């Protein structure tokens, strides 16, 4: 399965993605904003994750590439028949260029189309305002706050949660 957006290609993970994933996700500034990427994190860790993802153990995961270069990953984990949790990370050199918004918009649309979910959820740590802007642009509404594990920090961190219902998504996802 491959998805194309205006500037990006979202495709299945490949073993060759291990080196760029290890380099980009291995940056502490990236890993600390995710729940599951430990630090340090390298190519071997990325390869093991790719193998789990390709077996379906990590939900639906896309490598996000721009001009064939991997810049991040995004996907979702079905939680039940009604909803999924969206996740994403992008390498630090690609922050602030709108790539996360563009890719996550496509992933959310795919989740609704492919699975018929009633809603999707997402979250970000309280010290990650960039992620909040992504979710705001896509029409997500605040849904609460909870403590979530952060492997890179080795502790639980306050996480703001958001929800996007199918009806609201239809209008929000059409915008560029």
Task: Please give a handful of descriptors for the protein shown.
N-acetyltransferase, transferase, GNAT_dom, eight-stranded mixed beta sheet, globular, 176 residues, 6 helices
Total number of strands:
8
Class by helix and strand content? alpha+beta
Architecture, CATH level 2? 3-Layer(aba) Sandwich
Estimate percent helicity. 25-40%
Can you identify the CATH superfamily? Gcn5-related N-acetyltransferase (GNAT)
CATH class bucket: Alpha Beta
First-residue to last-residue Cα separation: 22 Å
Strand content: 25-35%
CATH topology assignment = Aminopeptidase
Helix count?
6
Helices and strands, in order, run as EEHHHEEEHEHEEH
Overall structural domain count: 1
Identify the strand order in the major beta sheet.
1-2-3-4-5-6-8-7
Shape: globular
Q: Any low-confidence stretches, pLDDT <50, length ≥5?
A: none
| Rounded radius of gyration (Å) | 15 Å
Summed over residues and divided by their number, the pLDDT gives a mean of: 96
How would a crystallographer describe the biggest sheet?
8 strands, mixed
Explain what the structure shows.
It comes from Methyloceanibacter methanicus. GO terms for molecular function: acyltransferase activity, transferring groups other than amino-acyl groups. It is a single chain. It contains six helices and eight strands. With 176 residues, it is α+β, with helices and mostly antiparallel strands. The protein has a single domain, classed as Aminopeptidase, CATH 3.40.630.30. The longest helix is centred in the middle third of the chain and has 17 residues. It is globular and about 40 Å long.
């Amino acid at each position: 399965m491959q998805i194309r957006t205006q500037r990006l290609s979202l495709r299945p993970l490949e073993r060759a993605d291990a080196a760029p994933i290890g380099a980009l996700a291995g940056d502490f500034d990236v890993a600390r904003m995710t729940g599951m990427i430990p630090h340090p994190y390298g190519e071997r860790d990325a390869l093991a994750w790719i193998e789990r993802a390709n077996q379906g153990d990590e939900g639906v995961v896309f490598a996000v590439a721009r001009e064939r270069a991997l810049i991040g990953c995004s996907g979702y984990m079905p939680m039940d028949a009604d909803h999924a949790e969206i996740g994403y990370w992008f390498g630090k050199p690609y922050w602030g260029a709108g790539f996360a918004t563009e890719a996550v918009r496509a992933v959310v649309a795919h989740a609704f189309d492919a699975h018929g979910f009633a809603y999707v959820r997402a979250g970000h740590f309280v010290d990650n305002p960039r992620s909040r802007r992504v979710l705001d642009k896509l029409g997500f509404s605040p849904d609460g706050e909870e403590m979530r594990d952060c492997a890179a920090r080795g502790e639980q961190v306050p996480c703001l949660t958001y929800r996007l219902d199918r009806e609201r998504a239809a209008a929000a996802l059409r915008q560029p």
